[in-house]
Amino acid sequence: MPIKTDHELHDLVMNQLDDDQAQEIVSIPLEGKTSVADFMVIASGRSTRQVASMAQKLAVKVKQAGYGPARIEGLPAADWVLIDAGDVVVHLFRPEVRTFYNLERMWSFEGGEPHMGRA
Q1: Collapsing DSSP states into helix, strand and coil, what is residue 73?
Q2: CA-to-CA distance for 118 and 18, rounded, in angstroms?
Q3: How confident is the model at residue 105, as a pLDDT?
Q4: Radius of gyration of the chain from its Cα atoms, rounded to whole angstroms
Q5: Which of 24, 26, 101, 113 stands the most exposed, by the fewest C-beta atoms within 10 Å?
Q6: Contact 11, 65 (CB under 8 A)
Q7: Are 21 and 98 in contact (CB under 8 A)?
Q8: Cα end-to-end span (Å), the chain
Q9: pLDDT tens-digit readout, 1-27
Q10: Torsions phi, psi for 64 (to 5 deg)
Q11: Share of the chain above pLDDT 70, in %
Q12: How far is CA 25 from CA 20, 22, 54, 56, 90, in A?
């Protein structure tokens, strides 16, 4: 059985969020910058219901793909849900909560712009 890479996990996350019609998907490469994860993905949902649904579907897909159970924080409120899938950490927000916390700016290094969309 081939070893799964963090890039394959990242692709799975990006594809699933796209399938679930997440908005403003941003991927920030963290490899070599922190030991927390290799990628941080940030996306928005139109409502708490969509954010919760996307988080739960993503956790199921990650586990089904053989990456083990993903930890989810922030349910049932679903204003900001964190999915820790190991090498990929996903933050799902309602738009106004995302604007308030502005994680993209906090995690973009040395003035560089985070990568928008697929890697």
Answers
A1: strand
A2: 10
A3: 82
A4: 13
A5: 113
A6: no
A7: no
A8: 25
A9: 455 677 899 999 999 999 999 999 999
A10: -60, -30
A11: 87
A12: 11, 7, 13, 17, 10
